[in-house]
Design goal:
The protein is an all-alpha fold. The chain is built from 2 helices and no strands. The radius of gyration is 23 Å and the shape is rod-shaped.
Length: 52
Amino acid sequence: MVQRAPWQVELWSLLVIMSFTLIANLKHIKAHIHVPSDGDQLPSSPSANTKA
């Protein structure tokens, strides 16, 4: 059996907790903002409509 230092277990636990927290926060943010899909068009600015 491979011996592990006690701090390795703590690091893995911290990595799992931080990953879960990050993903949960990103899902929360995504649920509260509108992410345009490929078919959605952003309104163009008036200066973009003028041609030189």
